[in-house]
Structures are given as structure tokens and as C-alpha cells.
Design goal:
Pfam families: GreA_GreB, GreA_GreB_N
GO molecular function: DNA binding; RNA polymerase binding; translation elongation factor activity
Protein name: Transcription elongation factor GreA
CATH topology of the largest domain: Helix Hairpins
Number of helices: 3
Structural class: alpha/beta
Strand order of the largest sheet: 5-4-3-7-6
Keywords: DNA-binding, Elongation factor, Protein biosynthesis, Transcription, Transcription regulation
Family: Belongs to the GreA/GreB family.
CATH superfamily of the largest domain: Transcription elongation factor, GreA/GreB, N-terminal domain
Shape: elongated
CATH class of the largest domain: Mainly Alpha
């Protein structure tokens, strides 16, 4: 059975737009590349044709992969509990490095540079099911880091 992915409405819309882009504009671009490459003659030794065929295969596999993710998504509820960290929670935490803000998201939406951490990551897992005021220790490649959950939104 395929793995279920948790995702926000915004994340789901982003995936659907990406699939649509791959099915329309990207397919058209690749079709033109194939057409131009065929016009060059002998296909057995035509690097442009082979590259376009590879791009086509990659594009089609990406469409299949994203459609599979979309089929297996579970939407993150917007009305989740505000007193316990769950997928979809925005949290403020304190550590020796200062105060940080994270949003707990599914792995498809994770983007640490934007403060979106996966519920499957060591950091995300550590915060789940905790309350404001709880202190958590997370093992990182650089050693253990202690966090205090300041606020859950």
C-alpha cells in the first residue's frame, strides 16, 4: 500500500499546478525538441533526439510520481488543536541559538529554509504531541540540542 502523505491545501494546489505544467507546457516543449531532432536525420546517432527522449521519459515519470502523491495525500486540518503540536501546527521554540519559528508539515512540503519541517524528520517528530512549555532534546549531526516550546499556533 502506498505511503500516505500529509499536505496542506496550498501544498496540494502547488502539486496539482506542477502536474498541469508538466502535462501541458513541458510536454509541448519536449514534442518540439523531438520534432526538431527528427528533422536532423539519422535517429540512431542523433544526440539531440536521444536527449529529448530522455527528457520525455523523465517528464512522464515525474507526472506519474506526482499523481501518485496527490492520490495518497491526507489534507492537514486547519482547525487542529492549538494546545498540542500536530501536523499543521506553527510553533515558536527557544534554544541556545535563540528563538525560531517552525511549521510542521508533511514531507512533500518540507523546506527547512522556509521553516517548514517534516513530521517525519527527527526535529519534527520530537515536537509532535508536546505542549507549550515542554522541553525537548533533539539529536542532530552536531550533537544534542535542547528546545523549549514557547507557543503553538
Amino acid at each position: 500500500m502506498p505511503k500516505q502523505e500529509f499536505i496542506s491545501e496550498e501544498g496540494l494546489e502547488k502539486l496539482k499546478k506542477e502536474v498541469q505544467e508538466l502535462k501541458t507546457a513541458k510536454r509541448q516543449e519536449i514534442a518540439l525538441r523531438l520534432q526538431d531532432a527528427k528533422a536532423l536525420g539519422d535517429l540512431s546517432e542523433n544526440a539531440e533526439y536521444l536527449e529529448a527522449k530522455e527528457a520525455q521519459a523523465f517528464n512522464e515519470s515525474k507526472i506519474i510520481e506526482l499523481e501518485e502523491v496527490i492520490r495518497n495525500t491526507v489534507l492537514i486540518e486547519k482547525n487542529h488543536k492549538k494546545n498540542i503540536v500536530q501536523i499543521g501546527s506553527t510553533i515558536e521554540v527557544k534554544s541556545k541559538n535563540g528563538q525560531e519559528r517552525f511549521v510542521i508539515v508533511g514531507s512533500e512540503e518540507a523546506d527547512p529554509l522556509e521553516g517548514k519541517i517534516s513530521n517525519e524528520s527527527p526535529l519534527g517528530k520530537s515536537f509532535l504531541d508536546h505542549k507549550a512549555g515542554d522541553q525537548i532534546e533533539v539529536q542532530t549531526p552536531g550533537g544534542a540540542v535542547k528546545y523549549e516550546i514557547v507557543k503553538i499556533g
